[in-house]
Specification:
Blueprint: H1 21-24, H2 38-43, E1 53-56, E2 75-76, H3 79-82, E3 84-89, E4 99-104, E5 115-121, H4 123-126, E6 130-154, E7 173-174, E8 177-187, E9 194-216, E10 219-220, E11 225-227, H5 234-241, E12 244-246, H6 261-266, E13 272-275, H7 283-300, E14 304-310, H8 311-323, H9 328-333, H10 343-355, E15 363-368, H11 372-382, H12 388-400, E16 404-406, E17 409-410, H13 412-426, H14 436-453, H15 461-476, E18 482-485, H16 488-491, H17 504-512, E19 516-531, E20 535-539, H18 548-552, E21 559-563, H19 564-569, H20 575-578, E22 583-586, E23 592-595, H21 598-601, E24 604-611
């Protein structure tokens, strides 16, 4: 990849220069994504061409953007949950070309949650030191409006999980205010593993943020410029193609599957293959995953399919695939999660039913644990019908009916109370008379419930619990191999140095080592299904110059597998710039999140250029 020597762009002001906002109001920069290592810049020091800037390291002045509403380097708090909509405002600014505006929309699924923006400082840079974030804030149309900055360190087993709601507004802004400088300052515990800094808004109204500073032990963090990676050079394109394996189709019914042999070779010796998805609603991604499941079943003897869904409900789908019991559409609906309520999922379920006749070949199960009442009911069915264990379980089941005080917000005090009661059930003498296999099965459900109850103190509770459930399933079936179907954010294996939550794939990699293979997905253009005031199709953002999707689109292959594991083993120099590119991920709602470090996250990546929204079942 051609990387000219970087010169300071005229649009980037020197440190400390603060000209009047009116004199500096101009069209905001629109370079687009991420990070290139300094070694590459140095390697081309003989070049004379000016190289454009993607961003500064923290984008503290909101001058660099991914779109009209998304600044580089910052993650915006989920609009659908918090009720705040964001935009980069070129009219109301304190300094430079733009500010970030957060405006209350009146629509939220999580009342009381704060809106705003956030990023992480490397724990090694902040732990044991004093961190300060300051900047200028303006508010308007206030109804109980509060705004300011927050610093949120996380210390494992000591920081309560409601720490993100503990915002100190003493130094912030209340009500309607002109531009006001605000500061938050905190001494960070030396045991902190993650430090998040944020700007927040709470209440009704509009808030503008601009011209921020971050200081550690009083020293201002310098804003290093990050160059824009755009066009593949012929040499880099040719080198990257060494690791690219074209795929013929995403159609699961295509008879020839030889093109998937590259994936089969990568999965050789693996017990678990994690199949991700970069949205929860892309039809071609779901179809390709279906095709891979069929290939691994037919060619490599995989016998377990584990879905990001609650286990008891998923096992009812298994009853259909094994014995034909029930209505498959209603059983899929009974898993509660709308991303799986699609024609694509139904097609795969019907295929499973076919291949399971006359003898079962593949089991349909789940690994999620967000519905504790059905987990408890399944546990009760495994226990003796009477005795102390049954009585303990009945008491737990009754209390779990009240665990959620509001949507996905557990009662912390009740969770603390139930943990020792669950331990007492696990140690109940009634269980000693059961077979070893039965005790293992009971222990798995107890561990799922333990993980669920731990969410008040462990931000990784769900991913850690799903990994534990996957490992438990494999222990029950020691000769089997499994496919895990979940979002990219779950199946990826990277711990990360600044992210708060460790993914499921991280725990699986820790336990299974090379026996776990993570396969991520990326897409170019098209539509996807997501929830915003109802389910509907949304347009994917056009891959911006400098993004992973933009670069992969230059390889002229409509569908392909990129073997990142092989690139790591061979220490391919292309990883230096490939891992620097941002790639996008979208969950259940249409907010777009950007990450870097693609080869750290996945062993293989499947890229599909053109996609369309998943096809929702009609009930």
């Amino acid at each position: 990849m051609r990387v000219p020597t970087r010169r300071r762009p005229r649009s980037i002001r020197p440190q400390g220069r603060h000209p009047d906002a009116e004199k500096n109001r101009q069209k905001i920069k629109r370079p687009y994504l991420w990070l290139l290592c300094l070694a590459l810049a140095g390697a081309c020091s003989g070049c004379t061409e000016t190289y454009p800037t993607y961003s500064t390291e923290y984008n503290l002045d909101f001058e660099y953007a991914l779109s009209d509403s998304v600044p580089t380097q910052w993650t915006l708090r989920n609009t659908s949950l918090t009720g705040y909509e964001y935009a980069l405002d070129r009219q109301t600014v304190h300094h430079g070309a733009a500010s970030l505006r957060a405006r209350w929309s009146g629509r939220t699924t999580l009342p009381g949650s704060w809106g705003g923006f956030q990023t992480f400082l490397p724990a090694g840079q902040a732990a044991g030191r004093e961190v300060e974030i300051s900047g200028w804030i303006k508010t308007r149309d206030s109804v109980n409006l509060r705004a300011g900055f927050g610093i949120f360190p996380f210390v494992p087993d000591r920081t309560p999980m409601d720490f993100l709601s503990r915002i100190d507004t003493t130094g912030g802004v209340r009500g309607t205010s002109d531009w006001t400088r605000c500061t938050a300052r905190l001494k960070i515990d030396s045991a902190a593993t993650s430090v998040m800094i944020a700007g927040f808004a709470s209440g009704v109204g509009s808030v503008w943020f601009d011209d921020l500073e971050i200081r550690i032990d009083g020293k201002r963090i310098a804003e290093r410029e990050i160059p824009l990676v755009d066009k593949l050079s012929p040499a880099d394109r040719q080198a990257l193609l060494r690791y690219v394996h074209p795929l013929a189709t995403w159609d699961p019914t295509a008879p020839d599957t030889d093109d998937l042999d590259a994936l089969g070779q990568a999965a050789a010796g693996c017990r678990i293959v994690g199949l991700g998805e970069n949205t929860h609603g892309t039809g071609e991604v779901f179809a390709m995953k279906d095709r891979i499941v069929r290939y691994l079943t037919d060619r490599h003897g995989f016998g377990i399919f584990a879905l990001e869904a609650n286990l008891p409900e998923a096992e009812r789908v298994n009853d259909y695939t094994i014995r034909g019991e029930g209505d498959p559409k209603q059983l899929i609906r009974g898993m509660y999660v709308w991303p799986w309520m699609t024609d694509e999922m139904l097609t795969m379920v019907e295929w499973m039913k076919t291949v399971n006749t006359p003898e079962p070949r593949i089991t349909f199960t789940g690994v999620d644990l967000q519905m504790p009442t059905t987990l408890m009911a399944a546990l009760q069915r495994l226990l003796p019908a009477s005795g102390s264990a049954a009585r303990r379980a009945a008491a737990l089941a009754e209390q779990l009916q009240h665990i959620y005080t509001r949507s996905y917000q557990p009662d912390i005090e009740l969770a603390r109370k139930l943990e020792p009661e669950l331990d007492a059930l696990a140690a109940d003498s009634d269980l000693a008379s059961l077979s070893g296999e039965k005790r293992t099965e009971i222990g798995g459900y107890i561990d799922m419930l333990r993980a669920f109850l731990s969410q008040y103190r462990d931000p990784s509770w769900r991913d850690r619990g799903m990994a534990g459930t996957m490992a438990w399933i494999m222990a029950l079936h020691p000769e089997s191999r499994a496919v895990l179907w979940a979002h990219n954010q779950h199946i990826n294996q990277r711990e990360g140095t600044t992210r708060l939550i460790r993914p499921t794939g991280y725990y699986l990699k820790q336990q299974f080592g090379d026996g776990y293979l993570s396969v991520g997905f990326a897409t170019g253009q098209g539509t996807y299904t997501a929830w915003k005031n109802g389910l509907r199709a949304f347009e994917l953002p056009t891959p911006a110059p400098g993004t992973l999707e933009h670069v992969l689109g230059q390889l002229d292959e409509p569908i392909f597998l990129l073997n990142l594991k092989r690139m790591r083993l061979e220490q391919a120099p292309q990883l230096q710039w490939l891992d620097a590119l941002s790639f996008r991920e979208i969950g259940a709602t249409p907010e777009v999140f950007y990450y870097t470090g693609i080869s750290e996250a996945f062993d293989c990546l499947i890229f599909i250029r053109n996609t369309s929204a998943s096809h929702l079942l009609q009930f």
